[in-house]
Specification:
mainly alpha, Four Helix Bundle (Hemerythrin (Met), subunit A), 7 helices, elongated, binds heme C
Length: about 160
């Protein structure tokens, strides 16, 4: 390849790269914004997601116990909401938002120092809620209890280790 050809090829490559950069711009902007999140907003966000999980889980538990009528359509909606919220939860635990770093949180510093284990506990929740979401459309009331136990167990396992009393 001649020097002129090489320059041309290189210029083309740079142009193509920049064009791709423009297209991917929104992704980069998103990442930059994520890095700038305010700690207090992250706390509000994760408490919101957790409150949402509890909001949907309560009526599902009641159905499992027979304290509320079994309603398949409602179960399906709540299970889908919980599966979605479970996937949204991790994002709320940004650096610098542990107890001792900000006010109003019960999140132990171990969430960040034992992050691989925290991630495992988060994935246990995601697996359990996804399993209920996929089964919910045709699930019998009698089979709801074991899903509720699996989900509730994943909440408890994480709280026991990573949430202060
Ligand atoms: C992977 C870990 C993890 C899992 C799984 C988990 N939680 Fe939590 N939860 C936490 C932590 C940590 C806190 C403390 C949050 C804080 O104060 O920063 C918390 C706090 C909460 C709160 C209090 C929110 C507030 O406004 O103070 C509720 C309600 C809650 N969790 C419900 C649930 C339910 C219901 C489930 C299961 C369906 C669940 N959590 C699963 C880690 C988890």
């Amino acid at each position: 390849m001649s020097k002129a050809q090489m320059t041309k090829t290189l210029r083309f490559a740079i142009t193509a790269f920049c064009a791709a950069g423009v297209l991917a711009g929104s992704v980069f902007v998103g990442a930059a914004v994520a890095a700038d999140r305010k700690p207090e907003d992250a706390l509000k966000y994760r408490k919101g997601v957790l409150t949402g999980l509890a909001w949907h889980f309560g009526p599902v538990v009641a159905m499992a116990k027979g304290e509320a009528p079994f309603d398949q359509a409602q179960l399906t909606e709540r299970a889908a909401a919980m599966a979605a919220l479970s996937k949204m939860l991790g994002e709320g635990f940004i650096q610098g938002t542990a107890m001792g770093q900000i006010e109003g949180t019960k999140s132990k510093p171990e969430i960040w120092s034992d992050s691989a284990d925290f991630q495992k506990k988060l994935e246990a929740l995601q697996t359990a809620t996804a399993a209920l979401a996929s089964a919910s459309g045709s699930l019998a009331q009698g089979d709801l209890g074991k899903h509720v136990a699996a989900i509730g167990g994943s909440c408890k396992a994480c709280h026991d280790t990573y949430r202060a009393k």
